[in-house]
Amino acid sequence: MMSIGKQKFVWMNGELVEWDRANVPILTHALHYGTAVFEGIRAYKTDSGLSIFRLKDHMRRLKGSAHVYLMDLPYSESELCEATTTLLAKNEMHDSAYIRPIAFKAEGGINLDYREVPTWVAIVAFSFNKYHEKEGLDVCVSSWRRTGEPSVPSLAKASGHYINAVLARVEAAQNGFDEAIFLDHRGFVSEGTGENIFIVRNGTLHTPPLSAAILEGITRDTVRTIAQDQDLKVQERDIARAELYTCDEAFFTGTAVEISPIVSVDRRKIDDGNPGPVTRKVQKLFSNVVSGNNRQYDHWLTPVYPKA
Which of 56, 154, 230, 293 could bridge across to 213 with cysteines, CB 3.0–4.6 Å? Predict the structure, then answer.
C-alpha cells in the first residue's frame, strides 16, 4: 500500500496552511455522512521537470461530481489547477507525487439537507510508493455488488460511495487476495474497488460500459486513447463474470494503480499466470506518456515549474 510522505503545506480554502494545522471540526457534515467529492491525481518527474498528468480533466470531473450532488464549489477549474501547481512548488516537490483535492460539506449541524452548509475545498499532495507492491495481482470477485444507479450516481466520485469499496477490499484481504472485482446489479463485471478493468481477448481490449456502474476513469480514457492511436482494438461492452477466467489477459487502470496486471481471478490463473504482451505494451505506452517521452500527448502534462 502507498506510504504518505508528509509535506509542509496543504492548500485549504484559498490559503496555504501548515500540514498539522489543516484541521476540520468534529461536526463536519462530510465526516458523518460522506458528503464530499474528491479526485486522485498524479504528478510525474519528466526531463522538463515535475508535471501533473491530466490536471484539467481531473478538476473538471471534480466540478462535475460536485454538480451532481448540488454542491457549489467556490473556485473555478482554473483556480483549482493554479492552486495545485502552487502547492507543489511551495512544497518544493520534484519527484513523483500523488495529489488529493477534496470538496466537502463543513460544520453545519446534523440535518441531512446540507444546502445551507458551507463547502470547504482542500488540496493535499504527498510522495508515495506504488499502490500495489506486487507486479501481478491475485484478485477475487467480491460477494458485494457495486453500488450505482438507481441508488447513487456512480459517475460522481463521492466519498460516501467508497464505503462499498472498503467492504470489498477488506473482504479480499481477509481471504488472501490483493484486490477485488465488483459485479454490477445485473451480474456483469463492473470495476475494482478503486480501479477500472480491462480484459484482453484475441488481441482486443474490452472494458465495461458506463452502464455497469463504473466511474468514468481518466486513466481508463487514457488507455483507450493511446491504444486506439496504436491501432489496438478497444471495445466497450458488458463483460460476463466467466470471461474473467477465460480471457487472455486482464489489468486494472487507475491514477494510483496506473496499469496493474491481473494474473489470477478466484484462484484461477489467467493464461499462464504472468502479465501478457498486450498488458506490457499498454504499460510501456502509458509510462512513456506520463513521463513526457511521447510528445503527442504533451497537452496532458501541466508543468509545476514552467521554464521562463
Answer: 154
Joined together, the cell numbers standing for residue 159 give 466519498
CATH annotation of 137-290: 3.20.10.10
Nearest 10 degrees: Cα torsion 242, 245, 247, 250: 110
19-42 pLDDT per residue, tens: 999 999 999 999 999 999 999 999
Q: Sort residue 39 into left (φ over 0), alpha (ψ -120 to 50) or beta.
A: beta
pLDDT band of 233, cuts 50, 70, 90: very high
3-state secondary structure 82-102: HHHHHHHHHCCCCCCEEEEEE
DSSP-based three-state secondary structure for 77: helix
Q: What is the pLDDT of residues 40-94, one digit of tens each?
A: 999 999 998 999 999 999 999 999 999 999 999 999 999 999 999 999 999 999 9
Query: Looking at the predicted structure, is the pLDDT value of residue 1 above 70?
Result: no
Domain ranges of the chain: 9-126, 137-290
**DSSP labels, 187-230:** SSEEEESS-EEEEEETTEEEE--GGGT----HHHHHHHHHHHHT
Instruction: List, for residues 189-210, the tens digit of each pLDDT value.
Output: 999 999 999 999 999 999 999 9
Burial of 78 by CB count in 10 Å (0-12 exposed, 13-18 middle, 19+ buried)? exposed
Q: Global pTM?
A: 0.95
Quote the CA–CA distance of 187 and 37 in Å, as a whole number: 27
C-alpha cell at 195: 480501479
Q: Which run of H or of E encompasses 47?
A: none
Q: Indicate the burial class of 93 (C-beta count within 10 angstroms; 0-12, 13-18, 19 or more).
A: buried
Choosing among 3.40.50.1260, 2.40.40.20, 3.30.565.10, 3.30.470.10, the CATH entry for 9-126 is: 3.30.470.10
Beta-bridge mates of residue 198: 251
Q: Residue 210 and residue 155: Cα distance in Å, rounded?
A: 8
